[in-house]
Amino acid sequence: MSPTEKVSETGSDDSNDSVVFDPKLEKTWRKIDLFVLPVVAMFYLLSFLDRTNFGNARVSGLPKDLKMSNHQYSVALTVTYVPYIIAELPSNLLLKSVGPNLMLPTMLTMWGVITALQGVVKSYGGLLACRFFLGLCEGGVFPGLVLYLSFWYPRRQLQSRISAIFSTASLSGAFPGILAYGIIRMDGASGPRFTIPSLVRAKNS
User: What does the pLDDT average to over 88-115?
Assistant: First the structure.
């Protein structure tokens, strides 16, 4: 196919987008598909693992260890989504001004540190603080990743990539239960019981 060949693509509206098929551009997309897209999908999978494994933490004795009632557990589960929703728009605006090369690694590093800290909390207040800041960091991750990918792909190319990322969320319910069961059976032999990347149980000493 000639580099200058053009194909008209019709979007959801009545406007037409003219796309130039360039072999060099196609090669660049393939490289991004191989090296960037799997990393983005992995981050999205890990964020859903955290949400799934918080339920496993309840089964494994988290409310008992932290002396939580059912209502307190519900509050700890819900408090994540308040800053999550609030942070989505401001984080994208900040991403465009700061740049994804700084913003995304910072958010993901902070998210990982806070997730790991859930395994050493000793009180209900500490858990609430972790869950709140976890939502604050996680809220801008997925919108930021989508915005980042939009820098590389045109609209028609981006749709299939976003669908592939969303499909990884279904994997988050496939194996966390087995992983949590194995780590719970360790009975804190290697320190606090937590999954990677999420808490299963904070064993009080």
Answer: 87
**Mean pLDDT (the chain, rounded):** 77
Top-confidence residue, 39 or 196: 39
Nearest to 25 by CA among 152, 158, 156: 152
Write out pLDDT tens, residues 49-74.
777 777 777 877 788 888 889 899 89
- 22 backbone dihedrals φ, ψ, rounded to 5°: -115, 125
Overall size of the chain counted in residues: 205
Asked if residues 177 and 183 have their Cβ atoms less than 8 Å apart, the reply is no
Decide if pLDDT at 129 tops 90.
yes
CB atoms within 10 A of CB 21: 13
CB 149 within 8 A of CB 140: no
Q: What is the DSSP string of 32-93?
A: HHHHTHHHHHHHHHHHHHHHHHHHHHHHTTHHHHTT--HHHHHHHHHTTHHHHHHHHHHHHH
Burial of 116: CB neighbours in 10 Å, binned 0-12, 13-18, 19+: middle
User: In this structure, what DSSP letter does residue 123 have?
Assistant: S
